[in-house]
Design a protein that fits this description.
Helices cover about 75% and strands about 0% of the residues. The protein is mostly helical and about 325 residues long. It has one domain: Farnesyl Diphosphate Synthase. Strand 1 and strand 2 form a beta hairpin. Helix 1 packs across helix 3, helix 3 crosses helix 8 and helix 8 packs across helix 9. The mean pLDDT is about 90. Belongs to the FPP/GGPP synthase family. Its cofactor is Mg(2+). InterPro entries: Isoprenoid_synthase_dom_sf (IPR008949), Polyprenyl_synt (IPR000092), Polyprenyl_synt_CS (IPR033749).
Length: about 325
């Protein structure tokens, strides 16, 4: 049996259990975003109704199977991480001026920037309310994760400092903006399933590495897809001058002694006025065929393999198999 979630699940019993628990998460998520105020209610439901992979709650539910995955606290932890993720999407889309999210108009396109930002804040508040019920340690973990999310966005916004390697700076941004919440998803799922500390540490480290690999794969997919896979307009990051790994590797190439005329020509397209759709499409097409995309893919593959090695101490079984398969699928989607 193959699951319809972000994680490939070959075990039918595991698939059935997780599907039932994910349905509980979905129900709780919709209850959590409901609001008596009609505008807040409609805006908060906007991205929930748009769907999504539910990667983070699924990771929490999956690793919880290494302990007692049936605990109610596990469901609440899964709701917390998805609420937090949804909140960041409202803010990210304003920062990036992204017109689409999950195939639907971004919230700021519907209600404007101020409403989108405040809706993200409302979702953070609901996540905080839910995590408070899980105890002080969960609150501390959530607060530290929130801090890393903000730092990642801050550092992406201001860019690398003088003398700082832009590629290493970008990898740290990805670790904070993306990997931190994926790691927290695994950590909370294992914690509240009663897993021993060594298991909690193992799945947390897996989440850190796979989170960066996941975003590097998305950098590739954003260039290679037509938008139907990501639900976003291809090249949005290029248009908004948001750094991605292929563009950073190209800039490093052009700055070095081995740059070719082709390298310079592609960079010139990226640095041109990309407000027009034709100019953006030309820049995306040129970068898509450049070998820096393959180098980005190679980095994603290497990190995914490192993540799999972190799983070594876990007991063999369907949970470990699903985590390994997810890492493999992540690599395949960027191929």
């Amino acid at each position: 049996m193959t699951s319809t979630t972000a994680f490939p699940l070959a075990d039918p019993d595991l698939t059935e259990r997780l599907a039932a628990r994910l349905a509980l998460v979905e129900e709780s998520l919709r209850t959590a975003v409901a609001h008596a105020d009609s505008l807040a209610d409609e805006a908060s439901r906007h991205l929930v109704n748009a769907g999504g992979k539910r990667l983070r709650p699924m990771l929490a539910l999956l690793v919880a199977e290494l302990g007692d995955g049936a605990r109610r606290e596990v469901i609440d932890a899964a709701v917390v991480v998805e609420l937090t993720h949804l909140a960041t999407l409202y803010h990210d889309d304003v920062m990036d001026s992204a017109p689409l999210r999950r195939g639907a108009p971004s919230a700021h396109e519907v209600w404007g920037n101020s409403v989108a930002i405040l809706t993200g804040d409302l979702l953070f508040a609901r996540a905080s309310s839910t995590v408070a019920g899980l105890g002080p340690e969960a609150v501390r973990i959530q607060a530290r994760t929130f801090e890393r999310l903000c730092l990642g966005q801050l550092h992406e916004t201001v860019g690398p400092r003088e003398g700082e390697d832009p590629v290493e700076h970008y990898l740290q941004v990805l670790a904070d903006k993306t990997a931190s919440l994926i790691a927290t998803s695994a950590r909370l799922g294992a914690m509240f399933a009663g897993c021993p500390p060594d298991v909690v540490a193992t799945v947390t480290e897996f989440g850190e590495k796979i989170g960066v690999a996941f975003q590097l794969a998305d950098d590739v997919i954003d260039l290679a897809s037509d938008g139907s896979v990501t639900g976003k307009t291809p090249g949005t990051d290029l248009r908004e001058r948001v750094p991605t790994m292929p563009a950073l590797l190209l800039r490093a190439r052009v700055a070095g002694p081995d740059a070719t005329d082709d390298d310079r020509a592609v960079l010139a397209l990226l640095d041109a006025d990309l407000t027009g759709d034709d100019a953006l499409a030309a820049a995306v097409a040129a970068l898509r065929t450049h070998d820096v995309v393959g180098q980005t893919r190679d980095r994603a593959v290497a990190l995914a393999r490192e993540a799999v090695r972190e799983l070594g101490p876990l007991p063999d079984g369907p949970v470990k198999d699903a985590l390994v398969s997810f890492a493999d699928a992540l690599v395949d989607r960027a191929a």
